[in-house]
Design goal:
There is one protein chain. It is built from 16 helices and 16 strands. Helices cover 37% and strands 16% of the residues. The radius of gyration is 22 Å and the shape is globular. Strands 1, 2, 3, 4, 5, 14, 15 and 16 form an 8-stranded mixed sheet that branches. Strands 6, 7, 8, 9, 10 and 11 form a 6-stranded parallel sheet that branches. Strand 10, helix 4 and strand 11 form a beta-alpha-beta unit. It is of the alpha/beta class and 517 residues long.
């Protein structure tokens, strides 16, 4: 919600997509965006405490050497010998972590705003969950040095059943009706350059299992929502790489699962309704009672068995607590925030009305139930961690009240509030997220890794909110110190202020499944 579709009116979904694949190798930027801010030769960050993302204890008094977009040296400052001509940056009292990885985004808006915001907030890699041609364009520009931004792992358009929860007013989605259709779509999106197939909620069983089999044959990951017709354990066994949000987990851990599945199969969406916002409101209204029934029937033995299955198959859960909180606790959303200035004013001003459209009409009793549902989601996150299920940090950025880059820092705080330690939350946005994305060259601070780094003024392991206390960032080897970072953020603010409103009303887009009114 609250996100403008920059490709509104674009018709062909996969045929128009530009090619390009994710890569762990660093992009080679040209001009002043290259390397160490345009300065050649190695750069050494000295006297810094390194939190390497692996789970190892913090290492104080370290030197990290960066050259050609890679970490080429890592050792205690007193024991490392620097090459002649190496520039040094003294980071005494600072903390250095891997660049953060945002595992669930729907990036939309002007490129001069969205792409730099990720990088300047220390989010150096993103996974795009609804791939569109513009995301491939941005990735190409970043690789060519024409745009400051993160590494981009880009999914297919949403692949859903018929009728989909999405309509043409928000952009391209694919409605799959049978197994043959599902196999064709997998081949099509792979040819179009998608890094993975984004699975959605209303796929039939026949279509889902055909899609999963064809994805395996084609060597492309499938992930996203667990369809309503498929049990999570079944999806996990197919190699479903990650399950987004916590809706399906409520159902799968309830002793009422069989009855709820029967009722879920009876949920209907009007295929003649041309508005995604209207379809989602209808969907939410019908699904909320089912989620409440699921929570009331929570069965710890069923949960333990399921979580063991997820851990065994290596299925990652991306909780997206940020969007759950927005839609399930709307009374708690802020009335203003400092980072909102980095988005167009007309976009920010649209959020309250759109949130009201999605969550309005709740009775006091429903509001209490939904608050309990959110608390139960937090409990599930803690239990997933205890069971050894991998978690990755993602926000559903693109939804109202979530600002690119900044939202991930809030997600880390929500993960800690749900029971993770700061170190565990940080790993969910670094090493573990990198494993989910299949990127071996990012996510930790180690020799040979990509030089995507975040330098902080305070210890994030003492207080996870310290990830917001950014001193500087290293983006593909380019060091952006405090003054330059402030200047670049000011440029983003100016670009946002100069972005005109769309010709048509702002529409709801994105996953939108984080909560149910």
């Amino acid at each position: 919600m609250g996100r403008r579709d920059v490709l509104a009116g674009a018709a062909a979904m996969t045929g128009a997509m530009l090619t390009g694949t994710a890569s762990a190798a660093p992009a080679r930027a040209a001009g002043t965006t290259a390397g160490n801010g345009g300065v050649t030769g190695p750069l050494a960050f000295t006297n810094v405490t390194v939190i390497d993302g692996s789970g190892a204890p913090p290492a104080p008094g370290m030197t990290v050497v960066v050259e050609d977009g890679r970490i080429t040296g890592l050792a205690p400052t007193g024991r490392i010998r620097l090459r002649p001509g190496t520039r040094t940056v003294d980071l005494t009292g600072k903390y250095l972590t891997p660049g953060l990885i945002e595992a669930h985004t729907h990036s939309d808006g002007p490129e001069a705003v969205v792409a730099p915001l990720y990088a300047l907030t220390g989010v150096t890699t993103v996974r795009e969950m609804w791939g569109k041609p513009v995301h491939h364009e941005w990735r190409d520009k970043i690789r060519n040095g024409a745009l400051l931004g993160p590494r981009w792992v880009i999914g297919s358009p949403i692949v859903d059943g018929a009728p989909s929860l999405w309509t043409a007013d928000v952009g391209p989605a694919v409605e799959v009706r049978d197994a043959a259709d599902a196999r064709r779509v997998v081949r099509q999106v792979k040819r179009a350059g998608a890094d993975f197939v984004k699975v959605y909620s209303r796929l039939s069983r026949e279509a889902y299992f055909a899609l999963a089999d064809e994805a395996r044959r084609q060597g492309i990951a499938h992930l996203g929502h667990c369809p309503d017709t498929v049990r999570i354990a079944e999806a996990s066994a197919t190699g479903h790489r990650s399950i987004e949000h916590l809706h399906a987990l409520l159902l799968a851990t309830s002793r009422h699962e069989k009855e709820i599945r029967r009722r879920l199969a009876a949920v209907r969406i009007d295929p003649g309704d041309p508005s995604s916002l209207s379809r989602y409101h209808s969907w939410f209204q019908q699904v909320h009672p089912l989620e409440w029934q699921a929570v009331q029937g929570y069965d710890r033995d069923r949960a333990d068995a399921l979580f063991h299955t997820l851990a065994t198959h290596g299925t990652t859960i991306v909780p997206t607590l940020s969007v759950h909180r927005t839609l399930e606790l709307p009374d708690g959303v802020p009335t203003r925030a400092e980072e909102w200035k980095y988005l167009p004013a007309w976009q920010v001003e649209s959020w309250p009305d759109q949130l009201a459209a999605l969550t309005g009409g709740r009775t006091p009793e429903q509001a209490r139930e939904i608050r309990r549902i959110f608390q139960h989601r937090q409990r599930l996150v803690s239990e997933l961690r205890d069971a050894g299920v991998r978690l990755a940090a993602g926000t559903d950025t693109g939804t109202g009240y979530l600002v690119p880059g900044f939202a991930l820092h809030d997600e880390l705080a929500l993960l800690v509030a749900a029971g993770l330690t700061p170190a565990e939350a940080l790993r969910a946005a670094t090493r573990d997220a990198a494993r989910l994305l299949g990127l071996s060259g990012v996510g930790t601070v180690a020799r040979g890794q990509a030089a995507d780094l975040l330098v902080l003024d305070a210890d994030p392991l003492r207080d996870i909110r310290n990830t917001r206390r950014i001193h500087g960032v290293v983006v593909d080897g380019r060091w952006i110190p405090p003054q330059e970072r402030s200047r670049l953020l000011a440029d983003v603010e100016t670009a946002a202020a100069q972005t005109p409103p769309p010709q048509e009303a702002v529409t709801v887009t994105g996953c939108g499944c984080g909560g149910h009114p």
